[in-house]
Amino acid sequence: MDNDTINSRIAYTVSQMTLSRRLFLSMVMAGTALPAPPTWGAAEPDVIIVGAGVAGLAAAKTLMAANKSVLVVEARERIGGRAVTDSTTFGFPFDLGAQWIEAGRTNPAMAILKEMNVRPVPDRQEQAIYVGGTEAPKEEYARFEKIAIDASRKLVEALRTAADVPVGRVLVAQDPLERLAYAMVGPLESGVELGELSARDFMRQPETEPQYSVPEGLGALVARWGAKVPVKLGTRVVRIDSTGGQVLVVTTNGQLNAKAIIVTVPTGVLASGPFGFAPQLSVARREAIAQLPMALYNKVALSFGRKVIDAPADRSVIGLNRKQEAFDAIVRPYNREAAIVFVGGAQARQLEEEGTGAALGFAVSALAEIYGNDLRGLLARSSVTRWGKDPFARGSWSMATPGNADKRLVLAQPHHDRVFFAGEATDPVWATRVGGAYASGVRAAREALAVLGAAGAKR
Fold first, then answer.
1. Contacts of 352 (CB under 8 A, 6+ apart)
2. What angle do CA 430, 14, 407 make, to 5 degrees?
């Protein structure tokens, strides 16, 4: 993608700015039990897929539609990957991971909703800005929007004169409101600090609006959507060997053979080296994996014993607490006496290291500064995500380090003809989003189909 194309997309993003829950990004650019997935499959399927997240399921369904036999191997005891819904703890769907479908007019993942005949819910949350427990005056709301517009202009100008630049070199906060606004680009939107964020990678992403949620929870929808895909759960891959006539996949539950394989695990898992490849991955691919590390974005969900938050349902709250720490929250989701607080970047990593109690303390304190200390004694239930400590994710999504946005295309290239890669990290436009996972799975499946067709022609 050349600079003119990128700048055109950025300009379009700026022109479409609207105040919404994912405010700054827009400005700068089941309750019922589900059947277990089938555990059967062909003894030697055409294609083995590693990972039953959205990318793996999209690849499998694309291949199945082309009458190819598939088998998905999944290390977890469930499907969905980083899309998973807790439908029981709070009495409303709490998405622990993927929650929204952004840029809904063009997002490839809207195909999931269409296939499942699900009507999306527009994300039209009322938004409030707080600094030190006090709501910002009206003129500060206007200045916040101006900061966003100016930030977008600065990033556009920076990318006109350089191939890439760390966002933190361009956006340097001079006061608390700028600090909050820029946090909505970095840790509270991208899951990394501004100095670690590639401006080119960030600005390639389509504008957020319209943004949708799913009534049952996005994770629950993904589980229903993939329920008929043949999956071996609780099966870890140890080695992938494509040097022979077929691809040999060694797992903790035995060996499998296939004509091709699609690997969809996150870059954090690939970097940790849970399984080996023969032949070995190229230096360029290993470098791509290293330069597409996992960001971190966690959630703290809280419910209270009685009404204690004086706010409309589904209000979005962003702010700085009295320690000048940025936070993002949804209060009274689904019109319940509850809240979901979001943390990202270095702060999320620190809270993970300190433990669940630290994350709860941060979330409760941030809310108490706004809605009063009474809520401290009314906490009824809670849930804290720890995606960085999840061995099958190692984080929330991939983020390109500055100067390495194009490494996504390197990672997406086939390895040794019959080993294909998918996952949001491999999509240069929809990376970090469910749409990237879905589109990459379809893309990898089509690449595998082309190879399978060529192999059949040779016979």
1. 296, 298, 359, 386, 388, 389
2. 30
**∠ Cα 254 63 456 (to 5°):** 85
Fold of 47-86+216-293+395-458: FAD/NAD(P)-binding domain (3.50.50)
For 70, phi then psi, to 5°, come to -135, 160
Contact between residue 283 and residue 290 where contact means Cβ atoms under 8 Å apart: no
C-beta separation of 238 from 396 below 8 A: no
* pLDDT in 10s for each residue of the chain, 459 residues: 444 443 433 333 333 333 344 444 444 543 334 444 454 455 699 999 999 999 999 999 999 999 999 999 999 999 999 999 999 999 999 999 999 999 999 999 999 999 999 999 998 778 899 999 999 999 999 999 999 889 999 999 999 999 999 999 999 999 999 999 999 999 999 999 999 999 999 999 998 889 999 999 999 999 999 999 999 999 999 999 999 999 999 999 999 999 999 999 999 999 998 889 999 999 999 999 999 999 999 999 999 999 999 999 999 999 999 999 999 999 999 999 999 999 999 999 999 999 999 999 999 999 999 999 999 999 999 999 999 999 999 999 999 999 999 999 999 999 999 999 999 999 999 999 999 999 999 999 999 999 998 654 444
Count of helices and strands (H, E) across the chain: 15, 22
Residues 84, 333: Cα–Cα separation, whole Å: 18
**Are residues 230 and 70 in contact, defined by beta-carbon separation less than 8 angstroms?**
yes
CA-CA distance, 276 to 241, in Å (whole number)?
8
Annotated binding site for FAD: 74-75, 237
Q: Domain ranges for the chain, please list them.
A: 47-86+216-293+395-458
Annotated binding site: 74-75, 237, 342
- Find out whether 434 and 56 touch, Cβ atoms under 8 Å: no
Binding residues for substrate: 342
| CA 267 to mean position of chain CA atoms | 12
Residue 354 CA to residue 12 CA, distance in Å, equals 42
Q: How many other CB atoms are there within 10 angstroms of residue 451's CB atom?
A: 16
pTM for the full model? 0.91
Distance, in Å, from the CA atom of 325 to the CA atom of 319, rounded to the nearest integer, reads 8
User: With 0-12 CB in 10 A as exposed, 13-18 as middle and 19+ as buried, what is 254?
Assistant: exposed
